[in-house]
Amino acid sequence: MAFDEPVYVTRKGLAELEEELHHLQTVKRPQTIEEMQEAKGDGDWMDQTEYMLVEEELAFLDGRIQELQHMIDHAQLIEPGNEDNIVNIGETVTVQTSDGETEQYTIVGKAEADPSQGFISNESPLGKALLDHLVGDEIIVHAPAGEIRYQIMAVTPRKRSTTN
Q1: Global pTM?
Q2: CA distance 144 to 29
């Protein structure tokens, strides 16, 4: 993760990152430290397996806490889109594949990407290809399986809501 690059998130996504960070800092990390102290105090120092496992878990948690803090510190909120028919982050795009199938994707920052739910990262090959194009444009995505052609059929701005 580059240090100066913004992390694009919706209000809901930012709240989820903050909630996870709070949980890790106030619940999970203290529990893990307690487990580490118990493992250290238990029994034979010749068998330190449990202690080493808890120590690794703590290192993982600390890494995730740093990652979440970085994302929150560099968060750039995705605001509701405009009505210009140009694909921007935060908008839902309806595309038609060259074989006539229609697909719909919402372009989000990588922190919220979940392709199985139709949320693709602005840094993914398809997300990059869609950005700044107009309804009616044809785009080509270079994928491992070869070139895939899409035509942009519609751009729907994300609606303002109290949860997002």
Answers
A1: 0.68
A2: 40
